[in-house]
Amino acid sequence: xxxxxxxxxxxxxxxxxxxxxxxxxxxxxxxxxxxxxxxxxxxxxxxxxxxxxxxxxxxxxxxxxxxxxxxxxxxxxxxxxxxxxxxxxxxxxxxxxxxxxxxxxxxxxxxxxxxxxxxxxxxxxxxxxxxxxxxxxxxxxxxxxxxxxxxxxxxxxxxxxxxxxxxx
Length: 168
What we know:
- Helix content is 64%, strand content 0%.
- It is mainly α.
- The chain is built from seven helices and no strands.
- It has a domain of 107 residues.
């Protein structure tokens, strides 16, 4: 073989780019319409979920405060203030509900009726009386509450905050 017949780098040619084997654009207007409808549906769904999440901010805040109160009940020097704040927390949740009726003045049987009507499950018949005891009862009576009674009370409050109905 002769050295002059060897390929030279100057003989190389750049290859032309070929068109892809398929198009990235839909072939018919139907696929484009389907894509647009899907994007619109996903956007509407995302906006509705975001609005729902925003509307329930008061629930998340109340559940966080309820957990803090439940932890505070375990400490002797924080027990009484935490128990006194529990009825106030439920009243603030009721006041924060979108389109809520005037609940600031409710007490006794009317407060119990409101709590039961807004609840997804059955509440104890004396729930408003328990809350009234926590708010206005003597300190000695609150000191006699057992841990089991407090656990039931806190779980009932948590259930109500998580699942109460909001009139739309």
